[in-house]
Design a protein that fits this description.
6-stranded mixed beta sheet; alpha/beta; single chain; RibonucZ/Hydroxyglut_hydro; 249 residues
Length: 249
């Protein structure tokens, strides 16, 4: 397997490139529109052909690169089925494998950050999106989020995986790149160390996070698989805006 972890600094988003060396096919998990030139350059450098983008959920802090990548490469767009996005080519569902040449990804429905959130499991790697971050988790107060659902998603589904399973998050704001299920079970201050659901719900209720600055632009744009908002300043439209601060919690 060919693997690259790519970082977009405006929203502190990790995009993951996965390639099948046997077929030259590749996919991107959570691409960001600001970084599609970089992503296409890396694919070209590696001699890979982009066939699919996968978003873990409808993002609130950046615009996905899915639509523009499809326009430029002919790839398909995969999004969680329950989000019912007409622009998607592949409706992602738990229990339905996603194949990339000789590689097979498993989608895991992990609601809580959003109701449609999915993580992706491939061999020793788990791509957790915003459901499980390194020593943290995504916020649960918007987009049909639920602290109770997120607790059950992480502790009942993700923490059931082997301790050595590598955790690759959707974001990190401190420069960390990878964790493991064992580490998060032991050290995650919100979800680890045997915290109860009631304790977790109390923690999330007490965060008092500010309203995300980009959400009112990002969510409508991402429901169209990555349409840049029309009400941003003209000089920023090519980048879909400098997202400013929109920490996911």
């Amino acid at each position: 397997m060919i693997f690259r972890q790519l970082f977009e600094p405006l929203s502190s988003t990790y995009t993951y490139l996965i390639g099948c060396p046997a077929t030259g096919q590749a996919l991107l998990i959570d691409p960001v529109v600001n970084s599609i030139d970089r992503d296409l350059a890396v694919l070209h450098e590696l001699g890979l052909r982009l066939v699919l983008t996968l978003d873990t959920h409808i993002h609130a802090d950046h615009i996905t690169g899915a639509l523009h990548l499809r326009e430029r490469s002919g790839c398909r767009i995969g999004t969680p089925a329950m989000d019912r996005l007409p622009c998607a080519d592949l409706a992602v569902e738990e229990g339905v494998p996603i194949t990339l040449g000789s590689l097979t990804l498993q989608a895991l429905h992990t609601p809580g950050h959003t109701d449609g959130h999915h993580a992706y499991l491939l061999g020793e790697r788990l791509f957790t999106g915003d459901a499980l971050l390194i020593e943290g988790c995504g916020r649960t107060d918007f987009q049909n989020g639920s602290a109770a659902d997120l607790y059950r998603s992480v502790t009942g589904k993700l923490f059931a995986l082997p301790d050595e399973q590598l955790v690759y998050p959707g974001h990190d704001y401190q420069g960390r790149r990878v964790s493991s299920i064992g580490q998060e079970k032991a050290r995650n201050p919100r979800l680890g160390a045997g915290r109860s659901q009631a304790e977790f719900e109390q923690i999330m209720a007490g965060l008092n996070l500010p309203y995300p600055k980009f959400i009112d632009h990002a969510v409508p744009g991402n429901r169209q698989c990555g349409v840049c908002p029309t009400d941003l300043p003209e000089q920023l439209q090519a980048y879909c805006g400098r997202m400013t601060e929109s920490v996911q919690g």
